[in-house]
Amino acid sequence: MFRAVLSHSRKGYSEAVWRQTSESFIRCLENAFQHFGGVATTVVIDNLKAGVIRADWYDPEINPKLEEFARHYGTVILPTKPVMPRHKGKVESGVKYAQNNAVKGRSFESLTAQNTHLSDWEKNVADTRIHGTIRQQVGKFFEAVERPALQPLPASLFPVFEEALRSVHRDGYVEFKKAYYSAPPEYVSRQVWVRQEARLLRIHNTRREQIALHALAEPGKFTTDPAPLHSRKRHIIERGASYLLDRCRLIGPLTGTWAEAMHQTRGPAKPARDAGTAAPGRKTSCRRLGKRGSRRHPSRHLAPARSQTSARAARQRRAEGLSGNPSLNPFPRSLSH
């Protein structure tokens, strides 16, 4: 059972949850602020694993998600000293009071029924009692003194997201739920925070600065942000049709004219063929492709032009090999006597 108690008036909020996770703990804190109608300047918490990663009296390591929550609500999280329950004595006694007075000896059909009972108990029992320390009725004292001192609530609730620490792979991608998202190249082999929201995935560095933003991808899919990538690291098709057409024009004027005609004829399906023309390979001469392939196959398929040019080049190499090797030449030019 979660219970929050305001330090001055002893106004409380109670909520039952199934598990003590970081998400449930943050939602309980948010519900407490909504119940109080304002935000406390500081929040003193126990060193629970859902809120504190490493307990230390001087330099505790707070859960990053809880830190984001504190920044959203404009408050400060202060963990208590380890094994020192008197540092939060007001809430410790408040938890015992709720357990002994509100739920002890009672059973509930569901978690919703228990939380409904706790809400009625806070309003009709806990708020109407005369507290032994302040000698005031808790509910009236809160409305008169402490509620005006609370900070206003933010315009929106804290967004629901799932976050995890990941390492950037050597190929520049991070894996999250079996999908892969690109990160800036300077973060390769370094750790980053990956945050999944409703439809977006944000990547933050260890200083909590956003370094990449992607739409959520399906498992097994790759999502690439081309902005931080060097042009030589991008796939040739990702550079666009204009780049590929310029590469084709460098091969020769006929190849450039043929590529432009192909692009107009094939439309969006053309970039892959432009890539094949721009990078004919080692077996196909760019000069031969520009002079023969483009001339004989205008505005047609790339494969026949490349195959014909490759076959002609192969025949020429065989002929050159025969003429250069006297032992393979069946008709030598001269005979020695």
Series of secondary-structure elements, N-terminal to C-terminal:
EEHEEEHEHHHEEEEEEEHHHHH
Q: What is the CATH domain class of the largest domain?
A: Alpha Beta
CATH H-level homologous superfamily name of the largest domain: Ribonuclease H-like superfamily/Ribonuclease H
Count of extended strands: 13
User: For the CA atoms, what is the radius of gyration?
Assistant: 36 Å
Discrete helix count: 10
How is this structure best described in words?
This protein is an alpha+beta fold. It folds into three domains: 2-149, Nucleotidyltransferase, domain 5 (2-Layer Sandwich); 162-233, OB fold (Dihydrolipoamide Acetyltransferase, E2P) (Beta Barrel); 236-326, no CATH class. Helices cover 39% and strands 16% of the residues. The protein has helices at 22-36, 64-73, 89-103, 111-126, 138-146, 241-251, 253-266, 271-278, 286-296, 302-324, and strands at 2-5, 12-15, 42-45, 52-54, 61-62, 76-79, 162-167, 173-176, 179-182, 191-196, 200-204, 210-215, 222-223. A hairpin with a 6-residue loop joins strand 1 and strand 2. Helix 6 (241-251) runs antiparallel to helix 7, helix 7 packs across helix 9 (286-296) and helix 9 (286-296) packs across helix 10 (302-324). The longest helix has 23 residues, at 302-324.
